[in-house]
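Following up on my earlier thread - several people asked me to post the actual chain instead of describing it. Fair enough. Here it is, all 187 residues.
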Amino acid sequence: MSKSKTNILTHGYHGKMGDQFVYRVRGRESIMAAKPETGNIVPTQAQIDQRKRFSGAANYAKVALQDPVLKLVYQAKATKLLTAYNAAMADFLKKPWIDQIDATAYTGQVGDKITVIAADNGKVSSLTLSIRDGAGVQLEGGNCVQDPLTTNWVYTATTTQVPVTGHKIVAIVRDLPGHVTEKELVL
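Reply from S.P.:
Thanks for posting it. Predicted structure:
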């Protein structure tokens, strides 16, 4: 693959040149590469599904960059090699995750803290937590608050729940594109 930054003959060229190679433009570079082979290959269902996800990501990125608030979020993620558009696409393609629910400080008393470590490659838009009994009935719940020092999410208990053995703590995290991830911890 050859690259050119200032070649006046190829600067800005893109597309197929004959049946041998193609020009691509990445930033300010013109890149000459071998022509991709397509043939008459029928895509698999996994390939079709991935193309749909990628198309959804492209549509999300276009819309997100027209929203002034979201545009600032993705511009903050941009680097020399990653545009705000690519950051928005990546955010759409990857769901948020929950690494850990730490309930060691929770004894069932009002004011006890439950810490959740959750993240997203874009931005976590919200994290809610509920405490449920063994049958799944919600006893209490609400929004977690992000600790600015640790970036962990903290829920403060509002009711007394004694004993806590067998209770379930369910954390639900949402990101900007609207993806939801849930994790459960049984006490």
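The longest helix spans residues 45-64. That should answer part of your original question.
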